[in-house]
Write a structure and sequence with these properties.
457 residues, alpha/beta, 8-stranded mixed sheet, 6-stranded mixed sheet, 13 helices, 21% strand
């Protein structure tokens, strides 16, 4: 039987950060990836990382702090986040940013996105990030990666410590020994219809655009050994995808965070557009036929950001996914809503914004506590048909601040660690854009440190 210090399951951002960290600490490491390539859900993400106090913010004149970041996370999470996890993220996020930069990850730009009080969405190219970490791994002779190697079960030794993994490789069942621990970084369950039916039946009909490997096997392996779960009651889809976004091109736009509004098929607003797009997804999925429209004007269109995964509205136009017209009458006709209702909706919204707060849903900002909305009045006018997608499951097995998996009594399961999307407790009832990739990088490294050098957090 092969023996390693650590075995890591999953080659997304959490798993790859863990592999590099462990390799550089001198551990003998095996990473098992069930797919034929690295990346998982990471490479399907928008590429934002929520970070505070960076040199990029300083250069842009943006005043931010870990305390502000954590305050926003807790507010967006409805105050039900695991504070030990959130505080640990605040403590290590800036160090992790520097570590990523040192390892070749390129941060391209800053934007304010869902849950941000200032622009703190640091944008990476997820493919570039994964490949940079992979290049580093290939230069570490003590780290091995096996592709098309799905893990099947975890086994305990006579002392009750998890130290063996059964997995398939080249059509043969194999067993590997992990003397210092197993790190689960295998993603969520957004592609497992049975688990979605069990835990998120309200999302039946949502688009399924997660990574193909997100079948939840890591969760089930942890459950077998008593792992607790967190955040399942708060599962929601992600809003802002075009209904055709089921193939290779996952067209998404969040024009409402630049000043657009959202109306249903009756032509009425139904939500404060500045809240987390996970909560927007919940509200939008309750509308007729689960379809709504983002509506905006040229003032908002002028805020389009080239090559931004969420704000490149011109790209949506080039893909012919937008309705573009000169009058509200034409717009109402295009999206098939009553003209008088749409005109009243926009007039009421505009008057409220000019008064400092719109009266129906209390919108004061563009996103969370950032930005000033503008009236929708400058032609041409735009509409983007939008729905909800299951892109990732922001709930999972419970861990402590050291990345150790815990049971319902808060006791650690010896030898078992987890990081990334597979974990719960961090996001709470909402979701701050960039916190998913952020926690993957932070806790991927911390899980390794906990397993190898017993860092006290």
């Amino acid at each position: 039987m092969e023996t390693y210090d650590l075995v890591i399951l999953g080659g997304g951002l959490a798993g790859m950060c863990a592999a590099v960290e462990a390799g550089e600490l001198g551990a003998h490491v095996l990473l098992l990836e069930k797919q034929d390539e690295l990346g998982g859900s990471t490479v399907l993400s928008s590429g934002y990382m929520a970070l505070a106090g960076t040199d990029m913010q300083e250069a842009a004149g943006i005043i931010d702090s870990p305390e502000s970041l954590l305050d926003d996370m807790i507010e967006v999470g409805g105050g039900v986040n695991d504070l030990s996890l959130v505080n640990t993220y605040g403590r290590y996020q800036l160090e992790t940013y520097s570590w990523l930069v040192e390892h070749g990850i390129e941060f391209r730009a800053l934007e304010a996105v869902s849950g941000h009080s200032v622009p703190r969405g640091h944008i990476i190219d997820p493919h570039q990030a994964i490949q940079s970490l992979y290049r580093r791994v290939k230069n570490l002779p003590n780290v091995a990666i096996r592709f098309c190697a799905p893990a099947k079960r975890l086994l305990k030794n006579n002392d009750g410590r998890i130290n063996q993994i059964i997995y398939d490789f080249n059509g043969v069942e194999q067993t590997v020994l992990a003397s210092k621990g197993v790190i689960l970084a295998s993603g969520g369950f957004a592609k497992n219809e049975d688990l979605l039916h069990q835990f998120a039946p309200q999302l039946k009909g949502a688009l399924r655009i997660a990574g193909g490997g997100n079948q939840g096997e890591g969760l089930m392996m942890a459950w077998e050994h008593g792992a607790w779960m967190q955040d399942l009651p708060y599962l929601n889809g992600t809003y802002g995808f075009h209904p055709t976004a089921t193939g290779a091109v996952k067209s998404q736009g969040l024009a409402f965070y630049k000043g657009g509004i959202i109306v249903n098929q009756l032509g009425k607003r139904f939500v404060n557009e500045s809240i987390s797009y996970k909560l927007l997804g919940k509200a939008a999925f309750e509308q007729p036929e689960q379809i709504s429209y983002q509506v905006w004007d040229q003032t908002v269109m002028d805020k389009s950001v080239f090559d931004d995964p969420l704000y490149d509205f011109e790209l949506l136009r080039r893909r012919r996914l937008l309705y573009v017209v000169d009058t509200l009458e034409e717009l109402a006709d295009c999206i098939d809503v009553p003209l008088e209702v749409l005109e009243d909706t926009i007039s009421r919204y505009n008057q409220g914004i000019q008064n400092g707060e719109e009266p129906d849903f209390g919108r004061k900002t563009l996103t969370h506590n950032y930005g000033k909305p503008t009236p929708i009045e400058k032609a041409p006018f735009y509409a983007f048909e939008s729905t909800v997608a299951m892109l990732a499951t922001y709930a999972g097995i419970a861990v402590n601040a050291a990345g150790q998996v815990i049971n319902p009594y808060g006791e650690t399961i010896p030898g078992l660690y987890a990081a990334g999307e597979i974990t719960g407790g961090f996001h709470g009832a909402g979701y701050m854009t960039g916190s998913s990739l952020g926690k993957a990088a932070v806790f991927g490294r911390l899980a390794v440190q906990s397993a190898l050098v017993e860092v006290t957090i």
